[in-house]
Amino acid sequence: MTLGYNADFLHTAVELPRAATAAKVLDYTHFTILLNTERRLAELTAVNIDGGALRQVGRDDTWRLDPRVAANLQAGEELYRNNDLDRGHLVRRRDPVWGSAADAAKANTETFFYTNAAPQVNTFNQSKELWLGLEDYVLEHADQHDARLSVFTGPVLDPADPPYRGFAIPLLFWKVAAWHGADGLAATAYILDQSPLLDELEQERQTALRAAEGSTPPLGPFRTFQVPVADVQDLTGLGLEQLAAADRFVPAPGARAGQPRWRLLDRFEQIVLLPGQA
């Protein structure tokens, strides 16, 4: 059994990215979580995926606190009870479910620790479907030859995130997939945006009104973007330099920093995975 993220999983070693805070490191079967105990959410998850050894294991669907962490340092049932928030898996349930039957079963169960959850609006649209299928698409279409990926995921923990029940609800989530390509290490990055489609003043008004009512802040609909890895690093403060240097998504020359560099995805075929594809 491999406990935690393995930096040597790919042909090129990919170290666990440097945390932005004094995060608590939690190792699970085939994945690792860096828990931001102030926000009580993961700031980074890292998983090794062996696409050639994946197993089919039934869903657990029983969420639980990680006993290694004090209950008041992780976001548990009190955040999700009686509202329209989903417990969004950061490490996808099936991604670490590979290897021996025992390892796969253990990994499956461990993805249901609350340390691996983040609050997401409970609506489903095409962009959310794209987000949930990114790993599968990269495994199938990237120029990797051993069906192996290392995937890093987390919320963007912005101080301006709207408050709810003593927590702050992230509006952006990020994902970086890495693999060994034809010319060495390759990576691509993505953002899932659940910000409401409101102008700034209306969003502030709605957020304040719902906070006064004790309701969830305005969220959604989901939008998924392919973005430069460097933009994820800028948004999160995480140490993603190695992955940024291997990025296959190169913005057009002269593109400004920020959202103009981002590609809104309507279908998988828009994703840039190969050199010169953009």
Automatic annotation (TrEMBL):
It comes from the Bacteria. Transmembrane segments: none annotated. The keyword Acetylation does not apply. Residues 28-247 form the ENPP1-3/EXOG-like endonuclease/phosphodiesterase domain. Residues 27-247 form the DNA/RNA non-specific endonuclease/pyrophosphatase/phosphodiesterase domain. GO terms for molecular function: endonuclease activity; hydrolase activity; metal ion binding; nucleic acid binding. Mg(2+) binds at N125. Coiled coil: none annotated. Pfam families: Endonuclease_NS. Keywords: Endonuclease, Hydrolase, Metal-binding, Nuclease. The active site is at H89. This is DNA/RNA endonuclease. It comes from Arthrobacter crystallopoietes BAB-32.
